[in-house]
Structures are given as C-alpha cells and as structure tokens.
Write a structure and sequence with these properties.
It comes from Bergeyella cardium. InterPro entries: PPIase_dom_sf, PPIase_PpiC, PrsA_foldase, Trigger_fact/SurA_dom_sf. Keywords: Isomerase. The chain is of the alpha+beta class. It folds into three domains: about 160 residues, Triger factor/SurA peptide-binding fold (Orthogonal Bundle); about 120 residues, Chitinase A, domain 3, CATH 3.10.50.40; about 100 residues, Chitinase A, domain 3 (Roll). Helices cover about 45% and strands about 15% of the residues. The protein contains 15 helices and 13 strands. The strands form four sheets. It has a four-stranded antiparallel beta sheet. Strands 5-8-7-6 form a four-stranded antiparallel beta sheet, sandwiched between helices. The chain is globular.
C-alpha cells in the first residue's frame, strides 16, 4: 500500500523502559543495576547486549564475545547521542512511531493471533513490542544520519585503493560463486470479468457499511493489506506522496467521512474513507482486495512472454530492447533488465538468489536464457525469464576483476577512520561510564578509561 518500503529486520530484544529522570540522575561510578553503560543520556542495558548477541547468532553472524559487542554498541550510542543534539538532523520521532505501528501490524498479519506473535518474538505485550520496534528504528535513523554527516565529502583516490589492496590483499574475503543476470518480468493481466468481480465485491462491502456496518470492522474482516487490516484499515498522518497516486487522488477528493467508489491501484482495488485532513496531512481508512491473477490469466502471460523470448532467441530483438519495451519491472527495465545486488554490483552471489531463480539457472551457461517461469509471491504473481550474462566462480578478491568492491572496502575503512577521529575529538565533552564488570575486557583506550571505579 505504501509506495516505498525498506527492508525491515526486527531485533528480538526486550527493552526495559527507563524514564528521563532516571537517565538524568545517573552519575559516573553509580550505575544502576542492569545497565552496562551510559553515553550522555543514552543507556545500554545488559539485556540489550545479551538479546542482540543472541539475535546475531540466529542470523548466522559470528559473534566472538560479549566485550566486542559492548564496544560496538558504545560506539553506536555515541553517534546516536550526538545526532540527537545536532540541530541539522531532522527530528523524525513522530514518523518513526507511526512506522513502528505499521510494522507491528504487518508482522501481526503473518500470525493467527497476537498472542502467538508475541510468543515467537519474545515479548510480553504488544505495547512492549511496539516500543522495541520504535527504539530500534530510532537508533538506526539517528546513527545513520550522524555517520553520513561526519563522513560527508570523504572520497578515495585510485592510488589509495591500490595501496589498500597491496596492504590487505591476503586478508580480503573470498567471493562465493556469482552470476550476472538480466530479467524480463510480466505482471499477468486480469480479465475484465475478473476485475468486475473484485469491484462488485467492494461495492457489496460499501453497501453493507451504508446499511450500518462500521468501516473499521469490515476492514478487519475483508481487507488484504497486512499493514492496516488489523487496525481497521487506518493510516494516520499521511503525507502527500506517501501513497500511490490513484489512492492519494481519490482520498483527497473525498469529504471527511465520505467513502469512495472502488479505486484501482497496482496493489488491487480499494474502498477509501477519508477520516480527516489537517494541513498537508490526512488520515484515511481503506479496504484492499488484492488483484491476484488466476491460472488462466497466468497462462496467458506465460504465452506472451514465451513469444518475447522467441523474438530474442531468433535474433529479431536484443534482450535489452525487449526488457525496455515489455518488462513491467520498473527497477530493471531501463537498465537492460540487469539485476543488481544490494551494494549496486551486477555480480550476485548464487546463495542470494531465490530458490526459484537458482533452480531455473542450474546447468545453464553464459548467454543462455531460461524458460518462462512463475515468480513473485502469493499477492503479486509474475512470469519471468532470466538471461545469464556471466558466471563467476568463487575466488579471492582481486583488484583486476573486483576493483569496485575493493574500492568500497577501502572507502569504508577511510570513513571509519574519519569517524574514529571525530569520536576522539568529542570525548572530552561527553559523559561516559561503563560498568566495572567489564574491567577485564579488551576495550579501546578511551572506553577503558570510562570503567566505573
């Protein structure tokens, strides 16, 4: 429903709540039991360390010891503390809280009930879990913004990249088997009769609401939007541009309390009720019926894509031209269909491919095109083909073939050095105290000095 969404990983942490008064009363050498460290007015709890270490291990990350984890958390909290004091960094506490509520509802939609979700994630109450999500998102935001401000303008020369490589080449990681892929993606089109079925269903729901049913209850029963269904379809303080254009246009053309006719978007069909407008923000409820294609519609899309594949195979059109002309994937169609990794590289580790993609390219060679196959998920079906642009066997990073990756490693190291220098400059002005139980840890010099006596 929201136009853009980031990748979200929820740390399974139980955060105890401390009032600002407690933070203000903490003095160096007088740490409250259960607190591992205090940086300015930011607190690191023993539970923060234990639970984040456990989460990291569950994700397959090599966690060596608690001391190193604490040291990393202290560095992060220092950036967060300074970011909150930086007047040039926007205070987004309200937006972060709203997003935390939406993420909570999205997670809840994946479970049969709230009790089961709380059991799996290790929280006692929904309030506690929402606060944990909000705290994690807030820390990530402020830490990231301060890091960007400190390292802004930091660049690296080709000579520095070469020097970095010559110094660390025997310590650089080995790259796993990789591939370079391009894709063409088609979204199966619903027939007019299928579209009318969805529209008629929403019209029946609207009639029930007009006859006395509440919009909120009907959204809980019928809406297929995981981000809002359990909340009665409600989105609050929506800024212009946040929702897809057709949703926003319909919502803003309503009077408060009025319900729209069925509205089509890339997600399906909506009934929208405007709750209120306040300046540039508005609240709205909606009921979403997803436009999931049926078998016949998927079969028609497969035949269409197979014809496109034949044009490419017969040399009548290049894969790049076909991707631009036919692909429905906005992220790749203007780039010859090329799929990029999270770091922007065209090389993708095979282990990062979906099981479907890995199966489709198995046994193929450079230049081959897969057969047409189904992709997407239960709510967003697609039909796809993949072109294997290259196959790269596992190898240790080499400056001749992996220059951009080595450049990024060198640049990150330089940025880290910039941050470390900045930290040392700020230390005289920041209150820092670490519980004496960590006196045997091999912490940095400035952290060791902060051990409570």
């Amino acid at each position: 429903m929201i136009k853009k969404s980031g990748v979200f990983s929820l740390f399974l942490i139980v955060f105890a709540l401390f009032s600002s008064a407690v933070s203000a009363q903490v003095k160096q050498g007088q740490l409250v039991d259960g607190i591992a460290a205090v940086i300015g007015n930011e607190i690191i709890l023993e539970s923060d360390i234990d639970e984040q270490m456990a989460y990291a291990k569950q994700q397959g990350i090599n966690v060596s010891n608690k001391c190193e984890f604490l040291s990393s958390l202290i560095n992060n909290k220092l950036l967060i503390y300074e970011a909150k004091r930086d007047t040039l960094i926007e205070n987004r506490s309200t937006a972060i809280k709203e997003m935390a509520d939406q993420k909570y509802n999205q997670i809840l939609a994946q479970f049969p009930d709230e009790k089961e979700m709380l059991r799996v994630y290790g929280f006692r109450t929904g309030y506690e879990m929402k606060n944990a999500i909000q705290k994690i998102d807030s820390d990530n935001y402020y830490q990231g913004e301060k890091y960007k401000r400190i390292t802004a303008g930091t660049d690296i020369t080709p000579n520095e990249v070469t020097d970095f490589y010559n110094t660390y080449k025997y310590q650089l990681p080995e790259v796993k088997d990789e591939v370079s892929l391009a894709q063409i993606v088609l979204h199966p089109k619903l027939t007019e009769s299928h579209k009318q079925e969805l529209i008629d269903k929403l019209k029946r729901i609207k009639k029930d609401i007009q006859n006395g049913e509440s919009f909120e209850n009907m959204a809980r029963i019928y809406s297929e939007d995981p981000g809002s269904a359990s909340n009665g379809g409600l989105y609050t303080k929506i800024a212009k541009g946040k929702m897809v254009k057709s949703f926003e246009a319909a919502a803003l053309n309503l009077q408060e309390g009025e319900i729209s006719e069925p509205v089509e978007s890339e997600y399906g069909y909506h009934l929208i009720q405007l709750i209120k407008k306040s300046g540039k923000l508005y609240d709205a409820r909606h009921i979403l019926i997803s436009a999931v294609p049926n078998k016949e519609e998927i079969s028609t899309a497969k035949k269409e894509l197979d014809s496109i594949r034949s044009l490419i195979k017969d040399g009548k059109m290049s894969f790049k031209e076909a991707a631009y002309k036919f692909s429905n994937d906005k992220n790749t169609k203007f780039n010859g269909g090329i799929i990029t990794a999270n770091d922007g590289s065209e090389k993708i580790e095979k282990t990062d491919l979906s099981s479907t993609e890995a199966y489709q390219i198995a046994g193929l060679n450079k230049g081959d095109i897969t057969d047409v196959f189904e992709g997407g998920d239960e709510k967003k079906k697609t039909v796809n083909i993949l072109l294997i642009n290259d196959i790269i066997p596992a190898h240790q990073l080499d400056i001749n073939t992996d220059y951009e990756r080595i450049k990024n490693l060198a640049l990150n190291k330089k940025r880290q050095e910039v941050v470390e220098k900045w930290v040392k400059e700020q230390l005289p002005n920041i209150f820092l105290s670490i519980n004496k139980r960590y006196s045997d840890c091999n912490l940095s010099d400035w952290q060791q000095k902060a051990i409570a006596k």
